[in-house]
Design brief:
The chain is of the alpha/beta class. The chain has a single domain, classed as Rossmann fold, CATH 3.40.50.1240. The chain contains 4 helices and 6 strands. The chain has a 6-stranded mixed β-sheet with strand order 3-2-4-1-5-6, sandwiched between helices. α3 crosses α4.
Length: 162
């Protein structure tokens, strides 16, 4: 069994004139990352490898989650190839995960995440929103052999509003 937890980066700020890769989180993004990670923390697998895109907004999201999960920041693996919007690239990266890791937590970008979820999940999701979490279980012991999996949970910030 392989478990994949896909997390789209939190909402970024467009107020600073920087390249796309260097856009930071907005205040709303920071707040949403805390809210969603507070819900997810109690449902985490005991062990997992954590990958993040090198884009600033994805790294900042991963850091907030890691801190709330009490995971050392050194455990975050930054992967330049995760700065992709293509689901085929995301699929290649996920399938490259070493099989000794049963659980993968990945911080990335849309459209790649939504298209991946709709190809490999058993539910149709129109759009995985910023700070959205989709957890998929695959009935295989080989990341390279993942196919249709079961979406076991989604956590979207809009569902947490009080």
């Amino acid at each position: 069994m392989k478990k994949l937890i896909l997390i789209r980066h939190a909402k970024s700020s467009w107020n600073t004139p920087v390249q796309d890769h260097d856009r930071p989180l907005s205040k709303k993004g920071i707040n949403d990352a805390h809210k969603v990670s507070d819900v997810l923390v109690s449902q985490l697998p005991k062990t997992a490898i954590i990958w993040t895109s090198t884009a600033k907004r994805a790294r900042e999201t991963a850091v907030i989650f890691a801190q709330n999960f009490l995971i050392p920041l050194e455990s975050l693996i930054q992967m330049p190839d995760l700065y992709t919007f293509e689901s085929s690239e995301l699929e290649k990266i996920i399938k490259s995960c070493e099989n000794r890791h049963a659980n993968l937590i990945l911080f990335g970008h849309n459209d790649a995440i939504t298209k991946f979820v709709n190809k490999f999940g058993d539910l149709s999701i129109e759009n995985v929103p910023t700070t959205g979490v989709v957890e998929i279980d695959f009935d295989t012991d080989d990341w390279n052999q993942i196919s249709k999996g079961k979406i076991v949970q989604t956590i979207f910030p809009r569902d947490l509003q009080i």
